Amino acid sequence: MRVEPTRALLYRLTTLPHRVIRYMVGHGKALLLSLAMLGGVLAGGGFLVVWLGLVPISASSGHWPVTRWFLHFAMRNAVETQAMGIKAPALDDPALVLKGAGHYATGCAPCHGAPGERQSLIVQQMTPKPPFLPPRIHEWTHEQLFWIVKHGVKFTAMPAWVSLQREDEIWAMVAFLRELPTLSPENYERLAYGERADTGIAKETTPDHLRALSDPLGPTLANCDRCHGSDGLGRGTGAFPKLAGQSETYLRASLRAYADGERNSGIMEPIAAGIDEATMQALAEHYASQYAIADQPADTQRPNIDGPVATDFDPAAITRGRAIAQRGIPEQGVPSCTDCHGPRREPHNPYYPKLAGQYTDYLVLQLSLFKSGKRGGTAYAHIMHSAAKGLSEEQIHDVALYYASLKQESRYPSIRLKRGEEPISSSIEISSIYRDRLIR
Amino acid sequence: MDATKCPPGMRVLVSLTALSSLSGCSGPQSALQPAGVDAEQIGQLFWWMCAVAVLIWLLVIGFAVYATHINPETHDSRAARWLIIGGGAIAPPVVLGALLVFGLPLLPSLSAPAEDGLQVTVSGERWWWRVQYPTPSGGTVELANEVRLPVGERVGFSLTSPDVIHSFWIPSLGGKVDMIPGRTTRLTLEPTDVGVYRGACAEYCGTAHALMNFQVVVMEPEAFTVWLEQQAAPAQTPQSSLARRGQEAFLANGCSACHTIRGTPADGVLGPDLTHVGSRLSLGAGILPNDAEAFARWIRHTDQIKPGVNMPAFAMLPEGQLTALAAYLSGLK
Question: In this complex, is the C-beta atom of B318 within 8 Å of any C-beta atom belonging to chain A?
């Protein structure tokens, strides 16, 4: 009969686990012993290989395909799982892209390359070799990119972000990475190198009075200028603060604070840490001297030559912001801003930055960082923690708009804000002006 | 313990301890040494309660001793039942009722508004006192951490708080009244003795609650009027060059964002008014002496002297500026 063998086979199969267990119970001790011996031999052999120095650690030999597959498998799954709790904010602000680009050029491009820039030959000898990023970005979501940029990856050369609490900077990096695959070499240059890119080569940006000080300042200053502009006006977007006309004391102390890790930034800390004291002093003098908004009241300040400063002109918000700046909000424990940051007649402590004409976005970011306690700085920075603590998000925006509007009033003298005034119809759209520059 | 068996040294020690604990009953912050009409009433109430309590205690102990030692036999259950019902159920309501009848009428008089008398507004803020006096010209003048009162005059207090519940208490002058956010509570005081007393916050209000005190100065009416006029005047201009540098430092470092010094551009309202800070008896809400050294210490280590305080510590100021600031502020008489 043909049924019988089939049935016998089925019977054997279905009882297999049962029989295996019965065997193991019957020979339990012997089995355990042999397993332990096997494990011992493997571990001992493995240790011997390591001890004798036979592990193939050379980068020149690369990974076995199976090792490569396994490491990637582990990394991809780890990133996917560990990025699950992250939620990306809106990343379509061109200023974020610009900020990310500025850091990418010095912090990332040497290993990962950029449009029009090959990876260094030396970097290509690493194992694992850092990927040339532009064609690889699409493999990751925003959140996964954020996780990788923030935490780095073990067993590769990918470092963690220098300042883990500055997640805003990491998101700026992600915003730029999202644009990276579509950037032409020219547009990448324009984003990362600013005005220098327009001339094709690194433009001579060191003013004459600095040249005599030291030649090494040339490249240093050129690096500063990429983001802060050779005019010190921060490239007109709010991604980077205006440095022109700040006090020398404040600029030098801020660089020092970055270098000492007192002021947190994954972008500025590494830059400042590489600058010596004399260069810091020369840089501070340079930006401080760019033009003197220093001791003048804001309404006589030189107009902003780099385009409009505020992203919007909401007269009601500016009026509210002015009230906060001048009187504070006593019931919320917020002191006035003008007593330290101007504009006012009395001279003020040079460690306090001047805020008139500074960018809205930059001011909003700094106040938010102060409010959340993530912003350090000079020895005076802690004053701002108790000052900003009581401000709401809307109030932060209002007061930032007020300060950003200060210089504009001299450029657009018709704008005189009074309580209850109608909004200005011909409001200036920074985004449209800016977007022309950011051609993909 | 039989006193005859007690060693003489022990007896001296016990009496000394008892005496020294009594010394806590006097001083500038004692409800048992009243210097005001209201404190006097409260003190009387306290002594009456004390006397009655001692009487009741003696009775109860007396009965216990009688029943266990003097006459330990079985007692008549009828008499015992009357004693228990009378002493345990009837007497307490009668005694407490009598206390209530005596005590309740005291309350309105303690908070009675002083008709057309002096009205002082005090706001308890973490952790200091904002004090406002009406000026003869019809305005108000803001002071801080010190209350001065004319002797023999009934003074009304309006009490309030912008943050948490505090309690305003000058034990030598009267009872305590809570300062509750969003409300105004009232208190009336009538000091009877000239002198310096101490007030305190009597409701736990956070980390530095114990460091929230103030001085109370009861003055002759003429001296009080002179004092109020002087306090209402703008600050005197600094005389020495050190004090002038102090004023510059005060404005340059943004102290004016929180503090007012009338007669200068400083018009902040978050912290105490400093127009005549040098004339006060103490610093930091009754916790430091008022001299240049204490000023410098306070400005440098605010956060250590009064943990949790809103004012940032200015330890980073150059030594020269600190000295100048201290000289300027302590000179604001």
Answer: no
